[in-house]
Specification:
This protein is mainly α and about 200 residues long. About 80% of the residues lie in helices and about 0% in strands. The protein contains nine helices and no strands. Helix 1 crosses helix 3, helix 3 crosses helix 4 and helix 7 packs across helix 8.
């Protein structure tokens, strides 16, 4: 059965993202060769340009994919920890712990901000931010959290988790930094509790 053009394009897009994840994780953004990457999957640079515009566009797609996976993993770990406040704390701690993953370190936490700019403006981070804001609003309605602007609280919680993860990723001793970062994160966000 012959594939449609859109199926072929989707397959090429998927191949490029898989190859790019590997190249960006192993070599970093600056040293990843787009010629080598496209050759590895049997495509031309034209396929890369058609699907992503340029190397930065491909990198943005990879960051969005990984960041979305991170949010899903954090959500699952939060759900496993319980509901409400326990889930929110577990999600934040899980996100921070993902900074130990070499792919996450290199692509999302180190190269991501350098190449794509402020992470709070990434589409994947904005989705996460909205979910956090909604959780905060529900926790406020339940009387768990102090009355504070929900968007401000969501931005500060998300920013604290992201910056803790970036600190770990940039550290020479990430395993030593992790528990310090998680403890400080918990103490910071505990300040939002209506009854500590």
């Amino acid at each position: 059965m012959k594939r449609t053009r859109s199926e072929s394009m989707a397959e090429n897009r998927g191949k490029l993202i898989v190859a790019a994840r590997k190249a960006f994780a192993e070599k970093g953004y600056a040293n990843a060769s787009m010629d080598a990457l496209t050759a590895d999957v049997g495509l031309t640079r034209g396929a890369l340009y058609h699907n992503f515009g340029d190397k930065r566009g491909l990198f943005a797609a990879v960051v969005e994919q990984i960041d979305t996976e991170m949010a899903s993993r954090a959500k699952a770990l939060g759900t496993a920890a319980g509901e409400g406040w326990a889930a929110m704390l577990a999600e934040g701690a899980a996100y921070i712990e993902m900074a130990l993953d070499p792919e996450v370190q290199r692509i999302v936490l180190l190269d991501g901000p350098a190449v794509l700019g402020d992470p709070s403006r990434w589409p994947s981070q904005n989705s996460c931010l909205q979910v956090t804001r909604q959780a905060i609003e529900q926790l406020q309605a339940d009387g768990v959290l102090k009355p504070v602007d929900a968007e401000a609280a969501a931005r500060l919680i998300s920013g604290a988790a992201l910056n803790a993860a970036m600190w770990i990723a940039a550290s020479d001793e990430p395993e030593t930094v992790l528990p310090k970062a998680q403890e400080a994160f918990r103490l910071l966000v505990d300040g939002l509790l209506a009854r500590p």
